[in-house]
Amino acid sequence: MQDIKFLNTENLSLLPNEVKIPDYNRSKIQTGIVHIGVGGFFRAHCAFYTDKVLHKNTTNWGICGMGLLPNDRKIIDTLNRQDGLYTLMSTQSDGVLSARVIGSMIDFVFAPENPQIAIKKMADPAVKIITLTITEGGYNFNEATKEFQIEDPTIQWDLNNPQHPKTVFGYLTQALKKRRDNNIPGLTLQSCDNIQKNGAVLKKMLLSFVKKAQPDLIDWINQNVTFPNSMVDRITPVTKPSDIKKLKSEFEIDDGWPVVCEPFIQWIIEDDFANGRPEWESVGAQFVQDVGPYEKMKIRLLNAGHSLLGFLGTLYGCKTIDETIELPMFRSFLREFMDKEVTPVLGNIKGINIEAYKDTLIQRFGNKYIKDELSRICLESSAKIPTFLLPTIKEQLVNGGSIHRGTLVVAAWCRYLEVAGTPGYNYTIDDKMATTLQTEARASMSNDPMAFLKIRPIFGDLVNSKQFVETYLHLIDTIRRSGIKKTIEELQMSQ
Ligand code: CS2
To answer: Which residues of the chain, if any, have pLDDT below 70?
Structure first.
């Protein structure tokens, strides 16, 4: 008979010995970091590194988990019930599962309930860093122009209701204003999303908002706030009910929302912190002067590789990344995309053996214990594709390189959209731009073949490239007539 324990502070010492638990005194830890967007990735990555730092007897870098969106209530309530504790479950490629209870989150704020508490927390002098995982779409830029979308209705709401903001921009502006007005030192705003130059993008977007909302704050921000760029990496699938069950049966832990992740982890950060930082380098993170080449490599190979497998695999009837890459045709197609279309735009990267990096990626994707669902990969692709894939196609066009495989991914995306919900394609489109995407993808099947490529906020000027358009039209036509497998085979024979 198993003795299952509910995960909380009181029960920590009763957990089986093989479960690593926080062996620092959590009641002594002060909040030094506010994190916005307490999703699985953050809990597998930044919160994990910080937990490791706290094991080294530091007391001032606890994390306050903050949710700004109504949907965040569930995770905040779950973690509050568990005294902020949760389990990180990671499975090696040989199937060995390990469980570690993370203790770095010590308090929580659910902002929609009381925006002023959230603003006050971010302006607290003890808080020296605000980290963010708000997804690629959360930065509110027009994908084609990279400019801030001031006309967005929630942004307009924030401009008109500064004390009851809804977006990260409204909250940050009020918090920074409070810091300035009360002579509290500035801090670091650290993006942990998959966007090249994520720090610079965050700064540009925030300043575009501040220019309208509180123009007199701009100089203070420029002088007192930093925005380091960083490359973040750890594959973190959506937690499934079966994971919760497994944690109970294998480790006797009753955790309402554990996080599942792969063993691999990487964090490369620009050392540009306005007001101190944890010694993340003592637990495996790397600090460098210029993170640009590493971000580019990771986003263009891993994230674009994911999207490739996501659309191609879904059209073929696969459900997970490991299942898709197990099929030789997808594995070889992915490798060719990486070798022939991405590697040429990356150049030499200091300290990196790019061939070995790609080998490792393919191995990571193949970890059959990490059931990373294609539905997670395909969601919000209107923000992902312009960030992960289209820049590679554009650079290859300029360099006179091949664009066939990248363009096939775009065509597969269109096909994925147009057949969604029809017999044999039993999925829905989970995307902020779902309606536009599907309407245009379907229009492109009949009266206007170019309709999909004409979605300007996504494709921008790419639609003016004769080479891209011709390649795309040929590929989408082949997918529609012969299916994804034949299209890949035909392409592999001709290229
Ligand atoms: C994925 C990423 O969302 C996606 O499409 O590619 O979440 C990916 O798993 C992480 O960036 C890995 O570091």
So the answer is: 1
